[in-house]
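Much of what follows relies on a compact textual record of a protein's fold. An example makes this concrete, so a full record is given next.
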Amino acid sequence: MSFPPRLLIATGEDHCVSRRAFSLIELLVVISILGILIGLLLPAVQHSREAARRGQCLANLRQMGIALHGYHGAYNVFPPGGVEWRPPQSSKGERQLAWSIFLLPYLEQKNLYDALDLSTSFDSAANRTAAATVLPVYVCPSVPRDTPRVDGRGACDYGGIYGERITGSNDPPKGTMLYDRAIALREITDGSSSTLVISEDANWPDGQWINGRNIFDQAFAINAAPSFENDIRSLHPGGANGLLGDGAARFFSESMELRVLAGVCTRAGGEVVGSEW
């Protein structure tokens, strides 16, 4: 079937289309509204990103918890907090090896573990190449840094709990991560679910996963220690993440009572912390 052709009828009249532009005032109003909307959305976006980073930090600690219990299953003890502490200015060549080394085979890093020479110190030439390896599990994503290495060695934003100095001296050490001594679960008589083993110690100047200076006795409120002192600290607003002896990772608030904080940093202090934390 064919259709009749369209007939174009010229009227001879000019048709004008009226177009109205924004005035300067209207444009400024629109820009102001957009600015307000962006100002309202930006904090929400930043909060969402930080929540994701804090969640990744907790996931790191959970991996360490699995590795700790894998080590305990193999040796019936947790790894020592460190091997051969090196006092400041010492010239004896103490190895000063960290707990975080001994978890490597249980963090799917057996090849890296085998590449280390544990008969020498953390900063020996023999360990230089392996120590430069950056391990994401030991790095908190909330910590801003120009390089993921500290003095050429892979950074570590987590520390082992050596005890506490909030209520008194830490002699003998009250924690679970000790030098030249490995603690078994049976020795954590305060209960593994009430005892901190590892926590954040973010962006500490000597924080390296191979360096045995990444243990400490807690002496301040969370996030309150001076920069030169390693302590529980993070770049997360309001608190820091920690790993308990039963493998559970959780967030600890800055407002936590000091006596309760001291209690969870000991393995056999007999404190009753209940549900106050």
Notes: Helices lie at 24-75, 99-102, 110-115, 128-131, 258-264. The longest strand covers residues 158-164.
